[in-house]
Design goal:
two-stranded antiparallel ribbon; alpha+beta; 3 domains; Heat Shock Protein 90
Length: 351
């Protein structure tokens, strides 16, 4: 039941109760000689016994509706402020609530919004300082990344290629036998082709991590375009992107770029997608990074708690005061969206 409906019910009930009390007092003060007088007496050509409850109900509806609409407006103003707070936007009510208690709540919401804004600024400033400190260790980090990738390539791609090689050897041997079934050979060749294709995808996904941790002298827009252009030349996938140029803190750019890298890597390795779309724009003081594919998808609620990639992307979004959302359904693709508030004085925007 809505606020307006609840106020109408209460007002109708209260008005009807008052009408009964007033009628009872009137009858007690001015006793009736017969109960039929209630029907015989008229008010505005309406029998008194009908006029009193009808007037009470009508008055209750009017008063309850007005009261309900008033309170609904107050609650909607508070709800709108909370929604802005949830989206990471600055909350400042244009019209202050008329009720003292609501004014107190609105004031606390604005105070929380300012605290969250300051915390986001601090997080972005710390992220920027962290990236600047890491620039001195880029070579060491790249070396560590290469060592890690070498191990992963050995454990995944090398084993698959070895298996493919063994199967090709078996096929070559069976060709020498005249009684070999052609269908069996065709299936084996198809399986080898799929394994090699998957190996190539995994190789390209892993090599994404060989890119420098920092964007160095590039903007986020330039880094995204360079990454996707290079990827579109190596992968048989329809890749589209739209990016806008605007100033951002260096730490925010680095975190968003790494989130994009991780997401694209997951798409290549697991999604089996034919299309990939990337959007990076600024709307209402929010930087929005959206990655969408048409792959096999997955059940978000059933995602493994130990999914390092998703956990890493979520943590990176939180580090810069942003939000991270994933929407995916099996066989219907995946949509990943990161929203980060733009802090003009977050410290260290790119020139």
């Amino acid at each position: 039941m809505s606020t307006t409906q609840r106020h109408i019910v209460w007002s109708v009930g209260f008005s009807f109760l008052i009408a009964i009390i007033v009628a009872a007092i009137s009858i007690w003060v001015f006793p009736l000689s017969s109960w039929s007088e209630l029907w015989d007496q008229h008010f505005m050509d309406i029998p008194y016994v009908i006029f009193v409850p009808a007037f009470s109900i009508a008055a209750g509806i009017l008063l309850g509706g007005a009261s309900g609409l008033f309170w609904r407006k107050q609650f909607l103003a508070i709800e709108h402020s909370l929604h802005l707070l949830e989206e990471g936007k600055q909350t400042e009510m244009k019209e202050k609530p008329a009720i003292l208690e609501m004014q107190t709540i609105a004031g606390r919401i604005e105070k929380i919004g300012k605290q969250m804004s300051e915390q986001a600024k601090l997080s972005q400033r710390l992220a920027t300082e962290k990236v600047e400190d890491q620039e001195e260790r880029i070579q060491e980090i790249i070396e560590q990344e290469r060592n890690r990738l070498a191990r992963e390539l050995h454990d995944s791609v090398s084993q698959q290629l070895f298996a493919a090689s063994m199967m090709m050897s078996a096929i070559n041997e069976t060709k020498q036998q005249s009684d070999v079934d052609n269908d069996r050979e065709a299936k084996q060749l198809k399986l080898v082709e799929e394994m090699i294709h998957q190996s190539q995808l995994e190789m390209r996904a892993l090599l994404l991590h060989l890119r420098p941790v920092a964007l160095k002298n590039k903007t986020l827009q330039e880094g995204i375009e360079e990454l996707l252009i290079e990827l579109s030349q190596k992968v048989e996938m329809d890749i589209k992107w739209k990016t806008e140029a605007f100033p951002m803190d260096k730490g925010v750019e680095d975190h968003l770029f790494r989130i994009l890298q991780e997401s694209v890597s997951n798409t290549l390795r697991h999604a089996k997608a034919n299309k990939l779309e990337v959007l990076m724009v600024k709307r209402d003081d929010l930087v929005i990074l959206r990655i969408v594919d048409d792959g096999v998808g997955f059940e978000v609620n059933e995602m493994k708690a130990g999914s390092y990639g998703m956990q890493n992307m979520h943590e990176r979004a939180l580090e810069v005061g942003g939000t991270f959302k994933v929407i995916s359904m099996k066989n219907k693709g995946t949509r990943l969206e990161v929203k980060v508030p733009v802090m003009i004085n977050g410290g260290g925007a790119n020139d």
